[in-house]
Design brief:
- It is a single chain.
- This protein is mainly alpha-helical.
- The chain has three domains: 43 residues; 65 residues, no CATH class; 255 residues, no CATH class.
- The termini are far apart.
- About 1% of the residues have low confidence.
């Protein structure tokens, strides 16, 4: 497939320019004719340089503005045109204008965002599609913003809690490396001779580290690179993303915090969809999509299929790994009492509160834990240097007595 740039006139006589994706010039011309455009000029467009993803703060602002204009009843393509005029970033302005152009040409919203999947968060186009189909786009976007703000706040807590200890750890690693590389070798021979080769285990380990400093740092660097490559590889496929998410969920505190966050997002989105008239299976599917969790998407698809085959909600979810029994029980109880949207909103608020508590615990525990770990590491290095001196002094005292 190639991108063709065109210059055409609409049936109303309006001049129109843009791009179209097609396998050949003839196919591109036919596509434009089906859109009731009289083509004046068609040429193959030069490939544009790769652009980076939209920044988190930029996206949050864009998403909130989009929620506001859709709540006011402004058509999506017109609203995007208006938003583009207020963008301070040239990249974001071009991106939003291109999106508006695609929508004006009749491109489905999910497809328009899928073509620009490098710029926007995963599944964003499908979330917008769900909002448009149910007529609750503004609520879906507002709920998404709350989810992203909560996730961003958690990320800031982790970064702030880890940055200072990591700086100390890095400085300590530099100092210890210099000691092992330049100081320890100078004293190794003298210390071994003075204590007669009877070194304590900690000092022996220190000398071994000094002798193997280059291989140790090489191995550490290779491990870090391998971890980064593994994360990138896992993120490229749904199965890999589920495996990475499964590992992430096993982390103490952080895993429970993440789980509460995605459940809160799914409960809120499902409540909106049920209120918009979706049946339970479809609402579960789209609600899971809006959470951004591949594991929840897989669980919700399995549960929805079982419900469509006549199973009860609790029975359908007995094999779900990420959907708790409480979530499914509230879903079933709400459906029986005809209070499903209210139950789901209460459930979403409960999980949001759990996430806030988890954030506080993370902030309270992570920083002291990191500082204590750094202190232990530096303390062991100092102790390893002091023990031989104590051993030598003790030996000299025994000899003099």
């Amino acid at each position: 497939m190639a991108i063709f740039r065109y210059n055409a006139v609409t049936a109303a006589g309006r001049l129109m320019t843009g791009t179209v994706e097609a396998g050949s010039p003839q196919e591109a011309t036919e596509t434009l004719r089906q859109m009731n455009l009289n083509v004046n000029l068609l040429e193959k467009a030069q490939p544009e340089p790769s652009r980076t993803a939209v920044g988190r703060n930029e996206f949050l602002l864009f998403n909130q503005q989009l929620a506001s204009i859709t709540k006011a009843g402004v058509p999506l393509e017109r609203g995007l045109r208006e938003l583009a005029q207020d963008m301070t970033s040239n990249q974001m302005r071009r991106l939003v204008e291109d999106l508006a152009g695609d929508l004006e040409r009749g491109v489905p919203i999910e497809e328009a965002f899928q073509k620009r999947e490098r710029h926007f968060p995963p599944l964003y186009g499908r979330i917008l599609k769900a909002g448009v189909e149910t007529g609750r786009l503004s609520e879906m976007l507002t709920s998404l913003n709350r989810h992203l703000e909560l996730a961003g706040h958690t990320r800031r807590i982790v970064v702030e809690a880890v940055t200072y200890p990591l700086m100390i750890l890095t400085l300590g690693a530099i100092v210890i490396t210099c000691v092992f590389a330049f100081v320890v070798p100078q004293f190794k021979g003298a210390v071994v001779e003075m204590v007669g080769g009877r070194l304590n285990p900690l000092t022996s380990a220190m000398f071994k580290i000094s002798d193997s400093l280059v291989p140790i740092w090489t191995l550490a660097g290779a491990a870090i690179v391998a971890l980064i490559v593994a994360c990138i590889s896992l993120s490229s496929t749904p199965r890999g993303r589920r495996a990475k998410e499964s590992l992430f969920l096993r982390l103490p505190i952080i895993g429970r915090l993440y789980h509460a966050t995605i459940l809160s997002r799914m409960a809120e989105a499902t409540a909106v969809l049920i209120g918009a008239g979706c049946d339970v299976p479809e609402a579960l599917r789209l609600g899971a999509v809006s959470s951004g969790s591949d594991g929840l998407i897989q669980d919700s698809e399995a549960v929805s299929q079982q419900i469509e085959q006549g199973s009860g909600i609790l029975e359908a979810g007995h094999r779900a790994s990420l959907l708790p029994r409480l979530f499914l029980y509230s879903l079933q109880l709400g459906a029986q009492r005809n209070e499903l949207p209210d139950n789901l909103r209460s459930l979403g608020q409960m999980y949001a509160d759990q996430a806030c508590v988890g954030q506080s615990r993370l902030q309270t525990i992570l920083l002291p834990t990191m500082i204590v770990a750094v202190g232990i590491l530096i303390g062991m290095a100092i102790l390893a240097m002091v023990l031989p001196i104590i051993q030598v002094v003790t030996s000299l005292g025994s000899m003099s007595s």
